[in-house]
């Protein structure tokens, strides 16, 4: 089974490095590789930040191989050299040589990064998603409760980071009043109603909440175009949820989805989908399938065993701009297989 990659993103000052420090030092029982972003790499800024507070202190058992540092708790820290995919492949190869395997790989992006291209790169590389490779598991976004409203207004990256998230850590909650915290929650939910919002202070969180989101359990992939992403702006990003009962015709559903993700986004006023996910049933299969999509890249994998197999309900969530809920619902319903 491939190793799950968790992308940690968030705007400048949201607490990403504090979370990384916790992961590298805490006795949490996970074997995690942490890949630091390369912003300020020439000055060694990121490396200095994660080495403070004893991480780079008298740790006699750590092994340094190039930019690879292994710590007492079994975690590994490194920086991106070359492409992201090459860095991950290098980590996996070194671990394989040692006869061990990571539980997870965490990738910290820069505070100004759009996580969409990062997710696409992890999906598009065919060698990376092989059985013994790595696969995108989740996107976790940290937000500064005291500054996120202003950041959303002034920076499209802050909005995109919220929109793409599976889990949102509403950090620095101790710096705002209770009523302000509730207002911020509502503002975030208006952009991404499906992400789990976890209130934190100093980036302290149970890693079981942010890891193992279920993507790793799948194995299949959707077809992937190599088209450039469209321009995305702050305004009108929202969440739309649709559902329909009955088994879907697999080919019809795939054609509808690809038209939605690939063609309509380029049309004037067309739906600009940043993120899509859901559960679907296709005719001829008794398995529930899981859909995950980031912009024009998608995958459909076998889902977890369901508790109530008698209910056949397809449920999809779209996050993006220019979303027509009625048209999306009609489109999904048109994919239901005819008897």
Automatic annotation (TrEMBL):
Gene3D superfamilies associated with the record: CobW-like, C-terminal domain, P-loop containing nucleotide triphosphate hydrolases
InterPro entries in the record: CobW-likC_sf, CobW-like_C, CobW/HypB/UreG_nucleotide-bd, P-loop_NTPase, Zinc-reg_GTPase_activator
Keywords for the protein's UniProt record, in alphabetical order: Chaperone, GTP-binding, Hydrolase, Nucleotide-binding, Zinc
SUPFAM superfamilies named in the record: Hypothetical protein YjiA, C-terminal domain, P-loop containing nucleoside triphosphate hydrolases
Keyword set includes Membrane: no
Annotated catalysed reactions: GTP + H2O = GDP + phosphate + H(+)
GO biological process: response to zinc ion starvation
GO molecular function: GTP binding; hydrolase activity
Record GO cellular component, one term: cytosol
Matches recorded under CDD domains: CobW-like
Residue ranges annotated for the CobW C-terminal domain, each copy included: 237-336
Family: Belongs to the SIMIBI class G3E GTPase family. ZNG1 subfamily.
Protein name: CobW C-terminal domain-containing protein
Organism, scientific name: Ostreococcus lucimarinus (strain CCE9901)
